[in-house]
Batch of 2 targets.
Target 1
Amino acid sequence: MAFWNKQRKQKKETSPPKVIDVSIQDIRKAISSFAEDKRDGISLKILVLEDNLVDHSLLTSYLGGIPSEHFYMSKETFELFESKDKHIPFWIDKMQRAVDTYIRTEEELPIIEGDPYQKISFYKLEKKAMLQERPPIEFYLSEQEQMVSHRKPEK
């Protein structure tokens, strides 16, 4: 009988995590801590749900609760976004996959010829059937590891 009462008591003490207000910087820190603690071979992609929503339940112990706002992350670049920009990680992922495929098959960068910012050419990707729909924003190719970015580089 004592065992049963002890189990019931433990269940009562385990309350659901509280909802807390956090900043995007707080989420970045939690993700960084999660990355340091995770086992080798586990990708950060585990934190990103199908719709690019960050799985906050995996970060609860780092944050001390569940965020009151949703955050979104690119599975390809791991860039983090607030709810107001939740469409951006979807397009980053789509563009990164298209760019990677283009580079692999065409052995050149899919950028607009002569563009000093390395703006990605939607036309080149469409022409090779690697992009079926144009994104609502422009994308650029970073000089580091050919990563897609929605941020225009400074020149």
Note: Residues 2-84 form one domain.
Target 2
Amino acid sequence: MPQAELVSNIVHAFRKNLIPGLFLQFFALTVCLCYYFWTPARPFFMFFADLKTSYGAMYSFFSTSLFGGFIPFVYLLLTGRIKRNLIKYLLFTCSFWALKGIEVNYLYVLQSVLFGNGNDVMTIVKKTFVDQFIYAPFWAVPGMTIAMLWPKNNFSWALMKQDINRPLFTVKMPTILVSNMIVWIPTVSIVYLMPAPLQVPVSNLALCFFVLILAVLTKNSD
């Protein structure tokens, strides 16, 4: 039954993402605390804040491509997780995350316009709600799920189309969405605690850290 399969998949996804999710949340919290309470780290943070302020969406384009695409690709390549279609995979993953970087950049800009740049509780709650309960379920998760079918099927459109079926929308996407919320609701709340110029840089660090730790733990459990 689809409902039983969905529940089973969600439970499995929760167990799979619990440890890397906790690592990610601890990492993001550590970064946030370093910014606010460790004075020697301030020049490091301000360097990236100045870059983001100077280059805006272009910073998000290249930074997210690097941290979400290129660095994880290098790790997966060096550990033998990617063995074919290397150029296609590299171009796809870097391009995908570059475009996602611009998308997230404007999401953060829009949220700043709507809710301001305060780090009070209500501002964080509003931004997190829009991020995780509007942007993620209605755009980010469906788009990413479908896009990732292409490399999963060795960049074959014919094979990819076979995976765009009812179970994709009734089982796989809801499972990914729940996993996304478990991992990222606390994380994006921490991201929104940062000043606006540092939100994309910290989000990029969190993204890269999560992809790498998930890859390490998945490999160790193989």
Note: DSSP finds nine helices and no strands in the chain.
